[in-house]
Amino acid sequence: MFARSALRSSLASSSRLFSTSTPRQTKVAVLGAGGGIGQPLSLLLKTDPLVSSLSLYDIRGAPGVAADVSHVDTPSEVKGYAADQLDQALDGVQVVVIPAGVPRKPGMTRDDLFNTNASIVRDLASAVGRVAPTAHILVISNPVNSTVPIVASTLSKLGAFDPNRVFGVTTLDVVRASRFLSLVTGSTPAECDVPVIGGHSGATIVPLLSQTNLGKSLVGSGETYGQLVHRIQFGGDEVVKAKDGAGSATLSMAYAGAKFANALLRGLNGEKDVVTPTFVKSPLYESQGVDFFSSLVELGPKGVEKIHPVGPLAPEEEKLLEACLPELKKNIEKGKAFVA
Ligand code: NAD
Ligand code: LMR
């Protein structure tokens, strides 16, 4: 039998999910904790040694999820909050993760979720701006290309927007790129870290395989390269189709969300060189009207420490970026217009 301490340390350190340096800990809220992503994400956050307290909120089911997750034998406290307890759920939190909102069904684009999810995200962001104005906000709800500008504009109206503290979680694209490249090259995902830039939907997802040791020889290789890029850009559709009306990626997304949250927490704790792609307010393509963009971002005690330039691109990647920018611009403008 697996000893409890061994299990705990294996959960904390054997996967690529969590690593930790210093022990300062943080109160984290999950808004949408009763959902397909929210439940496994709450579980994974309960096993993160950098989380001291978890506040689980949903319009339905969060107290039950909290009671369940609270039995896991890690030191963090867990509390669940009902629909009318949003302010209490946000009290004193330093990090807020938002997976609230409806997922896609086959045949839908992420933008088709806008009508439902835009107001959910706006209202949650507004509560964060009021109750926990210095919190870091991690946006998972789709369409991320629009919901992040919605959060930023909502906070701006309240005078509470700090561009260093609002993040669109694009980690699932990075996780997929790593896994899919490993399958093509017969290597391990750990050897296949792929920077993925742009946004989080179809053509706005731009993997930079030329910047990886194992992927660079594939760039321009014709069918293999084209299929790999397509799989990274449309991996979400694979899951939506396979779930056949029951939703979109939840488990891999929970993994990706917990992984990004851990990276942020390590940065907040002063760990150096925590660098990962995330969709933030960015100067990189502002001159082309794209003022939110995902690129490699260094995370530090204040959140965003440094936005890295995209680096050298292969001609094929220049083309992907050309296709990305106009679509991303439209998505961002739609989000801003909703709040204005
Ligand atoms: P789900 O329907 O299983 O869960 C959503 C949860 O949100 C439900 O429990 C619902 O009660 C809750 N909710 C609705 N309105 C709320 C509100 N106002 N306040 C608090 N909670 C509220 O959906 P899911 O599969 O967990 O997906 C959630 C969202 O995440 C979707 O928009 C989906 O498209 C998106 N998503 C994003 C990524 C990404 O990479 N960023 C990946 C997968 C899914
Ligand atoms: C994903 O990439 O899996 C998510 O954005 C969910 C979706 O709608 O595909």
TrEMBL record:
Q: Specify one Pfam family.
A: Ldh_1_C
Example GO BP: tricarboxylic acid cycle
> From which organism does this entry originate?
Tetrapyrgos nigripes
Lineage of source species = Eukaryota, Fungi, Dikarya, Basidiomycota, Agaricomycotina
Q: Does the keyword NAD apply?
A: yes
One annotated GO molecular function is:
L-malate dehydrogenase (NAD+) activity
The identity of this protein, by name, is Malate dehydrogenase
- Return the broad EC class: oxidoreductase
Annotated positions binding NAD(+): G32, A33, G34, G35, G36, I37, G38, D58, N117, I140, S141, N142, M253
InterPro entries per UniProt: L-lactate/malate_DH (IPR001557), Lactate/malate_DH_C (IPR022383), Lactate/malate_DH_N (IPR001236), Lactate_DH/Glyco_Ohase_4_C (IPR015955), Malate_DH_AS (IPR001252), Malate_DH_type1 (IPR010097), NAD(P)-bd_dom_sf (IPR036291)
**Family indicated by similarity:** Belongs to the LDH/MDH superfamily. MDH type 1 family.
Assembly and oligomerization: Homodimer.
Binding residue positions for substrate: R104, R110, N142, R176
Identify the domain of life.
Answer: Eukaryota
